[in-house]
Amino acid sequence: MLEAPGQVSRALRSAPPDQVVEAADRAIRSALGASRTDVFIADYRITGLWPVLDADLSGGSFLACHDAAQRCYSSQQPMTDTDDEGRCRLYLPLSVWGERLGVLLVELPGPPDPDVVERAADIAGELAVVLRAADRETDRYRRVRRRERLSMAAEMQWELLPGRGVSHAAFELAGQLEPAYTVGGDHFDWSVDDDRLTVTVLNGAGIGLSASLLTAVTVNALRNARRSGGSLVEQAELASDTVFYQHRGRRYVATLLLELDTVTGRVRAVDAGSPHLLRVRGGTVTPIDLEQQLPLGMFAEARYDVQEFALEPGDRLFVVSDGVWAADPGDRGAYGERTMARAMRSTRLQPPAEAVGTVMRELHAWHADADLRDDAVVVCLDWRGSAGRGDG
Fold first, then answer.
1. Where is each PPM-type phosphatase domain found (predicted)?
2. pLDDT of residue 392
3. N or C: which end of the chain has fewer CB within 10 A?
C-alpha cells in the first residue's frame, strides 16, 4: 500500500537543505517499498551523471546505472532495467520548469505497476523542486556537479546564470557555457514574465576574473532595468552607461537583447555589437541580419534602436558567441563559416537542451578535442507557437 502523497512532501519540506536526498531516500523506501534509492546529478559540462548518496558505487554497478540514467536524462522519460536477481531499477528525470538537474533512481523488488511508476514520477517532480531550492542553501550538490575545480571567474559566471533551461507552453529554451570550469566573460540570461520572454547573450571581453567582473556588472545592470519595468532600449542604455562610467570606454561588452512575445511570435531585438543570431527553419540555417549598434559601454550616453522580426511555429533560434562562431584551431577555418550550420541542422529532432550540447561537442571536435581557446556560449530557443499555449 502506497503512503499518502502528503507524507513524502512533508518529509522533503522539513529536511535540512543538505539532507534532502537522505530524507527522500527514507520517504521513498516507506512509500514505495523500495530497497534502495539514489540521486544522480549532471556535471557542469553535462558529460556525466554522478551519485549523491553512493559516491563509492563500484565500477560495474556505476556503469550499469549510469547508462540507464543517461538514457532517462536525455529522453526525459522513465527508464527501467532489471538485475540478475530480478530487482528492478526505475530511473526518473529530475527536472524543474524544463531545467534538467539529474535523475532519481528507485530500486524495487520487482517490475513496478503503473500506479507505482506514476507515484514515483510525482515524487521525482517534488524532489526536483526541493533540490533546486536547497541548492541555494548548501554546497553539497554543487560539489557533486564539479569534476574538477572551477576557476574564480567560472564560479562567478555559473552563479550569475538563471539556470540552464526553461520550458513553457509556447517555447523551450536552453543554454550552455564552455569551457565549463574556466569560462570568463561569455554569458546568457533570461526571464519569463506574463506573455514576454527576455533573453540576453553577452560576448564577454577579456579573460579570467576581470572578464567575469565586467560581465557581472553588465548582467546586473540589465536585470536592474528589466526588473524596474524598463524596455529593451532602457535595459541596453542603463547597462551601457553603467559600464562606460566604470571603465570610460576602455572596456565594453557586445550584447544581444531579445524580447519574444509568446502570444504572437514577434521578436524585438537590440543588437549591441552582438553575438551571432541564426534561425533554423525547415532544415535551412539562415543568419538573421540585424543592424549592429555600439557595444555596451563603448561611449557615454549611447542610444539604441529596436528592430523586429517574426517567428513561425517550429522555428528554432541559435545565439552563439564569437568563441563559437570564430573558433579556428589554426588550419581549418572558422567553425561558424565551415561546419556549424551542419551541426545545427543535425539537431532538428533534439530538444534545445540536447541541441546546445550537440553544437558544443562539434565545436570541441573542430578543435580536435583540445581546450577551447576562447569562451563559448550557445543558446537555443524553440518557438512552438501560440497554439502550444492551449488558446490557439
1. 168-383
2. 39
3. N
Question: Which class is domain 149-204+253-293+302-389?
Answer: alpha beta
State residue 371's pLDDT score. Answer: 66
Q: Going by C-beta distance under 8 Å and a sequence separation of 6 or more, which residues neighbour residue 187?
A: 157, 160, 161, 177, 201, 202, 204, 215, 219, 377
Name which of 141, 113, 114, 139 is nearest 127 in CA terms. 141
> Residue with C-alpha cell 510525482?
122
Fold of 5-144: Beta-Lactamase (3.30.450)
pLDDT at residue 390, as a whole number: 44
8 A C-beta contact, residue 78 and residue 121: yes
- Residue 183's pLDDT is what? 87
Buried b (16+ CB within 10 A) or exposed e, 293-332: bbbbbbeeebebeeeebebeeebbbbbbbbbbbbbbeeee
Q: At residue 307, what is the residue type? A: Q
User: If you count DSSP H runs as helices and E runs as strands, how many of each does the chain have, helices first?
Assistant: 12, 16
Q: Which three cell numbers stand for residue 55?
A: 559516491
* Residues with Cβ within 8 Å of residue 320, at least 6 apart in sequence: 275, 276, 278, 336, 340, 359, 376, 377, 378, 379
CB proximity list for 111: less than 8 A, separation 6 or greater: 80, 82, 88
Closest CA to 123 of 142, 145, 100, 106: 106
In 3D space, the residue among 102, 74, 75, 77 whose CA is nearest the CA of residue 90 turns out to be 77
How far separated are the first and last CA of the chain, in Å rounded? 42
Considering only CA atoms, which of 306, 375, 338, 345 is closest in space to residue 156? 375
Query: What does each C-alpha distance from 315 to 123, 250, 380 come to in angstroms?
Result: 34, 38, 11
Fold: same for 5-144 and 149-204+253-293+302-389:
no
Chunked mean pLDDT (size 10), the chain, 392 residues: 68 96 95 94 92 75 77 95 88 96 96 93 96 96 94 94 94 94 92 96 88 96 98 98 95 97 97 94 94 96 96 97 82 80 94 95 79 86 75 42
Three cell numbers, residue 247: 571603465
Instruction: Give the helix ranges, DSSP H, for the chain.
Output: 5-14, 20-32, 59-75, 114-134, 140-145, 152-160, 208-227, 232-247, 322-325, 335-338, 340-345, 352-366
The domains of the chain are located at: 5-144, 149-204+253-293+302-389
Q: Which of 104, 96, 138 is nearest to 34 (CA)?
A: 104
